Structure formats: C-alpha cells, structure tokens
C-alpha cells in the first residue's frame, strides 16, 4: 500500500515538473520561433507594444491563426507580364512624378496581393498583416510606400520607399519564391533618383 502511494506521488511530481518545463521552454521556443519567422516584423510588433514581448507574441500568433493557412495562388504568365509592365511604368513615372509613382506602386501591390489570394486591400492593415505571415522580410517596403503616398518624405525618401517595396513585388511576382526578378540589385539607383530595374526575370 505504501509502495503504491509512493509511486502515485512520484508520478504526480513527474507530471507537474514536465508540465512546468513545457510551459517554460515551450514559451521560450515559441518566442524564438516567432522571432525567426517574422524577423524585423517581430521587432516592429514589440515596439508597437512598448517593449511588451508577451503582447507582441500574442498579436503575431493571432496573425498566424488568421492568415497562416492562406494558400497563395500562382500568377498566370499573362498576369505576371502585365504586373511587370505596370511596375516598369511606375519606375519610369518616378523621374517626373515621385509622389504619383509611389501612390501607383501602393495600388499595384494591393492588387497584386489580392490576385494572389491575400485579403483584397480595402483594409490595409489586414492585408499587410497577412503578407507579414508569409513574406515578413519584405512587407516593410509595402508599408513604406503606403505611408509615402500620403506625402510623407522628400524625393530621396520616396525613392527609398519604392526600392524597398520592389522587394515585395519581386517575391510576389515570382509566385511567392525568394528569387529576385531584378537584374541590377537592391541598391542600384542612378543620379536622377530613378528606382532602377527593368522588372523582367
């Protein structure tokens, strides 16, 4: 009887210890997993919550629940060529009308994301949150052009926003891969502040 009681107590202690370890290490590993998945978006969420890591991770987990199962629809070759042509027009327009160009880039990205199965863009936060789940490394550029279209920033800042937004465009137009379709690289610009890149694969 004593032996059985002792065994039950030992098993109970093991269960409690295991549960505690799961909560501690599971929480820690979950945080590392979110940081690894979201990258700079993780730091942005922490900053939005004034350094409250727990609240930031809760927000990111909610994004995963809402948008993690979303399946991107691949573009047809015709759609891809159409978007590449539109982006080339945006870049050409930047030389004479930087503000108009970033506004058009913002619209183009919203439509491209919608056509690939993301939320339709009527709610920018919802669409950008969904994009952050699947393309966390590039969504910042989209946010930059969205802010820039409201007139935030000088010509150089608008150019930088457009160049960063091109990162998301490249990934999406490549049907979700990280393979860049640019031929000249992320930082190449000419003396006229033209966001370079022909937009062809």
TrEMBL record:
Tell me which UniProt keywords the record has, alphabetically: Membrane, Transmembrane, Transmembrane helix
Region Disordered: start-end pairs: 178-201
What superkingdom does the record give?
Bacteria
> Where is the sequence biased in composition, kind Basic and acidic residues?
179-201
What parts of the sequence cross the membrane? 6-26
* Protein name (Swiss-Prot/TrEMBL): Secreted protein
- Name the source organism: Streptomyces drozdowiczii
């Amino acid at each position: 009887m004593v032996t059985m009681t002792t065994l039950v107590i030992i098993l109970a202690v093991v269960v409690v210890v295991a549960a505690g370890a799961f909560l501690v290490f599971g929480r820690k590993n979950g945080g590392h997993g979110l940081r690894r998945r979201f990258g700079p978006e993780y730091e942005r969420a922490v900053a939005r919550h004034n350094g409250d890591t727990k609240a930031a991770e809760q927000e990111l987990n909610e994004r995963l629940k809402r948008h993690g199962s979303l399946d991107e629809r691949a573009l047809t070759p015709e759609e891809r060529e159409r978007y590449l042509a539109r982006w080339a027009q945006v870049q050409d327009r930047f030389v004479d009308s930087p503000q108009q160009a970033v506004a058009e880039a913002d619209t183009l990205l919203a439509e491209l994301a919608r056509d690939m199965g993301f939320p339709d863009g009527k709610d920018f936060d919802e669409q950008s949150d969904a994009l952050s789940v699947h393309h966390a490394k590039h969504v910042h550029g989209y946010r930059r052009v969205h802010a820039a279209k409201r007139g935030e920033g000088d010509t150089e800042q608008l150019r930088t926003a457009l160049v960063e937004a091109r990162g998301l465009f490249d990934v999406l137009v490549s049907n979700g891969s990280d393979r860049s379709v640019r031929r000249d690289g992320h930082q190449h610009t000419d003396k006229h502040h033209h966001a370079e890149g022909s937009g062809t694969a």
